Amino acid sequence: xxxxxxxxxxxxxxxxxxxxxxxxxxxxxxxxxxxxxxxxxxxxxxxxxxxxxxxxxxxxxxxxxxxxxxxxxxxxxxxxxxxxxxxxxxxxxxxxxxxxxxxxxxxxxxxxxxxxxxxxxxxxxxxxxxxxxxxxxxxxxxxxxxxxxxxxxxxxxxxxxxxxxxxxxxxxxxxxxxxxxxxxxxxxxxxxxxxxxxxxxxxxxxxxxxxxxxxxxxxxxxxxxxxxxxxxxxxxxxxxxxxxxxxxxxxxxxxxxxxxxxxxxxxxxxxxxxxxxxxxxxxxxxxxxxxxxxxxxxxxxxxxxxxxxxxxxxxxxxxxxxxxxxxxxxxxxxxxxxxxxxxxxxxxxxxxxxxxxxxxxxxxxxxxxxxxxxxxxxxxxxxxxxxxxxxxxxxxxxxxxxxxxxxxxxxxxxxxxxxxxxxxxxxxxxxxxxxxxxxxxxxxxxxxxxxxxxxxxxxxxxxxxxxxxxxxxxxxxxxxxxxxxxxxxxxxxxxxxxxxxxxxxxxxxxxxxxxxxxxxxxxxxxxxxxxxxxxxxxxxxxxxxxxxxxxxxxxxxxxxxxxxxxxxxxxxxxxxxxxxxxxxxxxxxxxxxxxxxxxxxxxxxxxxxxxxxxxxxxxxxxxxxxxxxxxxxxxxxxxxxxxxx
Length: 645
Ligand SMILES: [Zn+2]
Hints:
Layout (H helix, E strand, L loop, with lengths): L1 H23 L4 E5 L5 E5 L10 H17 L4 H13 L8 H8 L1 H5 L1 H9 L4 E10 L1 H6 L4 H25 L5 E5 L2 E6 L10 H13 L3 E10 H6 L1 H16 L26 E5 L2 E5 L1 H11 L5 H9 L21 H4 L8 E10 L1 H6 L4 H33 L16 E7 L2 E7 H19 L4 E10 L4 H22 L8 E7 L9 H9 E2 L5 E2 L7 H13 L4 H14 L2 H14 L4 H7 L7 H5 L7 E3 L11 E3 L2 H11 L1
Parallel strand pairs: 12-13, 15-17
Antiparallel strand pairs: 1-2, 3-5, 3-6, 4-5, 7-8, 9-11, 9-12, 10-11, 14-15, 16-17
Helix pairs in contact: 1-2, 1-3, 2-3, 2-16, 3-6, 8-9, 8-12, 13-16, 16-17, 17-20, 20-25, 21-22, 21-25
The structure holds zinc ion.
Zinc ion binds next to helix 12.
């Protein structure tokens, strides 16, 4: 027995080695620095290709694992076969060859057995899928940053715990996905132990740990041979079963009776206990209290992981403190440096386009493993680089110079709410939000475009705007707008898209986006002109950000120029004003800067126009549907300037 246990841990180690290799394979860019010394992503030097595909090895080990368990072989035999499957490609190479020969000779002897198992796998297995649903309402039902952070950490822990249990009891190769509140695993039976199924275990732990969160889970039975040959079909069925399960979750109905005290944090559920929160005795419900505690005592924060991934300390990005945890803001107002007049935060919500369709094309387990690692590694690294880079840009705007001055920011200007799978949601200081979007889209495009790409919606709003409302708007309206623009692009030209809206007070968040866009961004009737080119691609946004930065000195003139269009609601009057101003100005600096090229390109390269205040463009209004429109890009520059003020 002892020996079988050792064999098990050896096989587990080997499987973890291949998982590590697989995650190192992606993405195709890595951390670098630009000419100004700021962190950025750069294309990796040519990959020579790997002799052995880690995804193939892992998938093979999973099949051998399942097929062996289905045939009821002994523990010892099982782990020897797993070891054989995990080492056979390299078993002729030194020093592995000698190591295996003298320590685990049984593994080498099993190679031919493993080959025949793989050629003709018998038996059945299960694909178990579990996910937390309605994550957004769970995370954002409490307004405080600390509780939001706690909630998002609790969700991560829930899926990691289940994945950990599967890795322990079945083997690390059995875990196909563990990201974005979703776990997918291959299991020999739907049961975790004599009592509980994997699905029930997930639900029970969700309730014990998080209380009120909706979860769904299902396990799909399949012939092992089908898992190998037609994986996407089984995956599709499992997801359908899980979607169906969603409607049967049995959460207790929550109602606060008139005489009951409400929880001070969520203000919806009845209070269940008194706790000291921020120095005050507070009535709270169980669910909010665990979020509060978790947010407080986060061992490793998402921000810490992001900085670790790019190998930078807070100081290296212009923030005081040695660890990310030390300089994580507890309040949104702490993310915005003191002394900044316009107290804006930016709330971003993003996800991938066409990623669902990609899954349907996954024929094998190895394809799927590769894809899910590729997506999550790309998103994590792109977000981490974007976060570090935009923080540096923010610190620089406060006088920081990389390597030359001390830090200028007291707190990290970010809070990551969700990051994993193809989902992304975060809050940051308004000034740097657009820079984050630019870097994130540029890097994810490097990996995926044109077939797949990300879209982001960003609301830049007053720091006092309720987070939940801001997130709902960013996701429900802005992200959808950006995604429609992606779908409208010609397939070969597709790139990631983003759109933003600036609402400097909570009341300015429009109740309906479509009407608002028409009112705000279109002028004139005879010559209908659109005052925005949104949604933008990364290239377009980069160009405009740089342009806005160059025009910092001339902000007043830029506003007056835009005003001429907006106030008269006439493109003709606006154009006349432009020509008149340009003609009579002796000092041409402003117009030269506005019309000229910059480091990110020129109006011609980026938008295929010579700069004029109004222009007909082969671009559908608001990026939706078909057609051309007449555009004036001045207002976009004004809003970008305002966001960065
Ligand atoms: Zn509560």
